[in-house]
Amino acid sequence: MLGRVNHIAIAVPDLKAAAAAYRDTLGAAVSQPQALPEHGVTVVFVELPNTKVELLEPLGEASPVAAFLDKNPSGGMHHICYEVDDIILARDRLVEAGARVLGDGQPKTGAHGKPVLFLHPKDFFGTLIELEQA
Amino acid sequence: MLGRVNHIAIAVPDLKAAAAAYRDTLGAAVSQPQALPEHGVTVVFVELPNTKVELLEPLGEASPVAAFLDKNPSGGMHHICYEVDDIILARDRLVEAGARVLGDGQPKTGAHGKPVLFLHPKDFFGTLIELEQA
């Protein structure tokens, strides 16, 4: 069921400084910051040869990464996104296996314009998993 | 400088249960557990099309993931490993840029038999970064 790792998301308190560290210190190709107000984040994409890292900074009042940064003020790894062929099939299989889907269980349109779901980190050993229909 | 994401490492308190969740619930191909006493972990490889996830369980008294699990008893994302072409060149560039290499600054032989270094998470917004010579 799990396909490619689409991205690894890292929450950071200072997106400009984090993008500079990945570009200048680590020598990676980084995008310009993109504000995604409907997702409550500003994102910088770090392009690697086989996948990407997404640096996320909270945007607005109800950001999904704000609580994480309250607990981890320096930042940290926030979630892993895996691609799946059919998100409804994946969801139904996961729910049948006893895994909890966050929210109302319906896929939402994610930051890349594709249907996504998040799985409860307690069901996967502390890791927040995002599934994105490829 | 940063090349492929070689792996994403996830520390777990119960490797057997975690491997079963990735295999049976998430439908991924997982390896048999491999004890790596010289690295203080037992590892299960989760093979994805473009990279891999490594599930790590502490092994022995001085495991590098034991303190992480004390702080995060359910488990969690532990580090990201990026490939580099020349680990000495990468280290020298990083040190010149002010980044801190963990330990004595000399590459060690990592779990895949290749030279590796770890970078201080405080220099990279809470993310522990491993570099592995490809």
UniProtKB/TrEMBL annotation, chains A, B:
<dbReference type="GO" id="GO:0046872">
    <property type="term" value="F:metal ion binding"/>
</dbReference>
<keyword id="KW-0413">Isomerase</keyword>
<dbReference type="InterPro" id="IPR051785">
    <property type="entry name" value="MMCE/EMCE_epimerase"/>
</dbReference>
<feature type="domain" description="VOC">
    <location>
        <begin position="4"/>
        <end position="134"/>
    </location>
</feature>
<comment type="similarity">
    <text>Belongs to the methylmalonyl-CoA epimerase family.</text>
</comment>
<dbReference type="InterPro" id="IPR017515">
    <property type="entry name" value="MeMalonyl-CoA_epimerase"/>
</dbReference>
<dbReference type="InterPro" id="IPR029068">
    <property type="entry name" value="Glyas_Bleomycin-R_OHBP_Dase"/>
</dbReference>
<keyword id="KW-0170">Cobalt</keyword>
<protein>
    <recommendedName>
        <fullName>methylmalonyl-CoA epimerase</fullName>
        <ecNumber>5.1.99.1</ecNumber>
    </recommendedName>
</protein>
<dbReference type="GO" id="GO:0046491">
    <property type="term" value="P:L-methylmalonyl-CoA metabolic process"/>
</dbReference>
<dbReference type="Pfam" id="PF13669">
    <property type="entry name" value="Glyoxalase_4"/>
</dbReference>
<dbReference type="InterPro" id="IPR037523">
    <property type="entry name" value="VOC_core"/>
</dbReference>
<keyword id="KW-0479">Metal-binding</keyword>
<dbReference type="GO" id="GO:0004493">
    <property type="term" value="F:methylmalonyl-CoA epimerase activity"/>
</dbReference>
